[in-house]
UniProtKB/TrEMBL annotation:
<dbReference type="InterPro" id="IPR022090">
    <property type="entry name" value="DUF3634"/>
</dbReference>
<protein>
    <submittedName>
        <fullName>DUF3634 family protein</fullName>
    </submittedName>
</protein>
<dbReference type="Pfam" id="PF12321">
    <property type="entry name" value="DUF3634"/>
</dbReference>
Length: 96
């Protein structure tokens, strides 16, 4: 019985600590390296245009929850002006 509780607790912690975003978009020196998930085409195109104009290296992740709208998280290597431009083109209506 004790082993079962210990194993179930370890599995529960593993699920809580795993990073599971809906969308991941990675850029390196202004070029799209990879994307994962169902990315809206307009958002992907706009991000690529922003990266062409202001080359940056970093990742853009989108998280979703049943109780909250989509949350946009960007790596710290992306400067604040570029982050704001990406936030402005993010389609919030697509993630409700």
């Amino acid at each position: 019985m004790g082993y079962f509780l210990l194993i179930s607790f370890a599995i529960f912690l593993a699920f809580m600590l795993i990073d599971r975003p809906l969308i991941v978009i990675a850029f390196k020196d202004g070029q799209l390296v990879r994307h994962k998930g169902k990315v809206p085409k307009g958002f992907l195109h706009d991000c690529q245009e922003i990266a062409k104009r202001n080359p940056f290296t970093g990742t853009v992740k989108v998280y979703s929850n049943r109780f909250k709208p989509a949350k946009l998280v960007m790596s710290r290597s992306i400067d604040s002006r570029t982050q704001q431009r990406i936030k402005n083109v993010f389609p919030h209506q697509s993630f409700k």
